[in-house]
Specification:
about 325 residues, mainly beta, Jelly Rolls, eight-stranded antiparallel sheet, seven-stranded antiparallel sheet, Pirin_N_dom, Pirin family protein, Pirin_C_dom
Length: about 325
């Protein structure tokens, strides 16, 4: 999924100096952004916080009634230095990329694209699609040692699950929890878990005290660590916990995101992640000139042009504003 903002900010982020070693409860409110015909709630980067572990971008969209609409339509666009994670609760998304991948992603299937040195892709709802579309699109920054790795795409239809008699069903998207590990490739200590809670559930999950965590409420009313959460909100929890308590007043769906605090400084602009403004300038030039990112076959539409770079010099910023 692309960042379609016409004037994206140029940001330097990362580093551990703003990560609390103690548990916190920081409610992050979404910013509404446009993704073609789809409105999304952007939780990361946020006015208060820019990263959770190596998770650096979180969009939550839907549920939208697209029965009489084309649905998602994101033209070909580039990425560098990151992984994209496509995650659905309802509907389907058709993924195409410059490696030749063509894959329909369905609810609770993992679509994981590693951009590495360069890739381009496009996403759209299939011509024949379900009436509802509901999901999240997330980015994971690659560490410097792997940011120029070869691009790749993975689709995992079967993922490990955890079930509790107290009303919890969890799907491990990335990383490992309670002895269950996702087959998805990761490059930093990371965790992504989809959690479904039944009405009246009151459960606890073990977590790593050295990881920082955040929880995105996809649907239903929940309490996480005794904080009431409405759909579309994200609660940042910091580090220092060994377990997390989840309670539900209705059937509910959440995403638990976590990882070791990312200790590198990165520059993130539009759909690129680098380590300097020069990295971003080169990626933009290569995309606009047709170099490095390859071509996508079968998409009915033109590639997205890159926005103009801002005239102001790059300013150093950390994990929080």
């Amino acid at each position: 999924m692309s960042n379609l903002e016409p004037t994206p900010q140029l940001l330097l982020r990362g580093g551990r100096e703003a990560v609390s070693g103690q548990p916190v409860q920081e409610l992050l409110k979404p910013r509404i952004a446009s993704l073609g015909s789809t409105a999304v709630r952007r939780l990361l980067p946020n006015l208060g916080r820019r990263m959770v572990g190596a998770w650096c971008f979180v969009d939550h969209y839907g549920p939208d009634d697209i029965a009489e609409e084309p649905g998602m339509w994101v033209p070909p666009h580039p990425h560098t230095g990151l992984q994209t994670v496509s995650w659905l609760h309802e509907g389907e998304v058709l993924h195409r990329d410059s490696l030749g991948s063509l894959q329909t992603i369905r609810p609770r299937e993992l679509g994981l694209m590693t951009a590495g040195r360069a890739i381009s892709h496009a996403e759209q709802s299939p011509r024949q699609h379900a009436a509802l579309l509901h999901g999240a699109q997330l980015w994971v920054v690659l560490p410097d040692a792997h940011r120029d790795t070869a691009p790749a795409f993975e689709h995992h239809a079967a993922l490990p699950t955890l079930n509790s008699p107290d009303g919890l069903h969890a799907t491990v998207i990335l990383g490992e929890i309670d002895g269950m590990r996702s087959p998805g490739t990761t490059y930093t200590p990371l965790l992504g878990v989809d959690i479904a809670l039944a009405d009246g559930a009151d459960v606890r999950l073990p977590v790593e005290p050295d990881f920082e965590y955040a929880v995105l409420t996809m649907s239903g009313v929940t309490r996480v660590d005794d904080v009431l959460l409405e759909p579309g909100s994200m609660l940042y929890l910091g580090c220092g916990r060994r377990e997390l308590r989840f309670e539900a007043d209705t059937d509910a769906g959440l995403l638990l995101l976590g990882g070791e605090p990312f200790d590198e400084k990165i520059v993130m602009w539009w759909n690129f992640i680098g380590r300097s403004q020069q990295d971003i300038e080169q990626a933009r030039e290569d995309w606009m000139s047709g170099d490095r990112f390859g071509a996508i076959n079968g998409f009915d539409g033109q590639p997205l042009p890159a926005p103009e770079l801002p005239p102001t010099p790059l300013k150093a910023r950390g994990r929080v504003r």
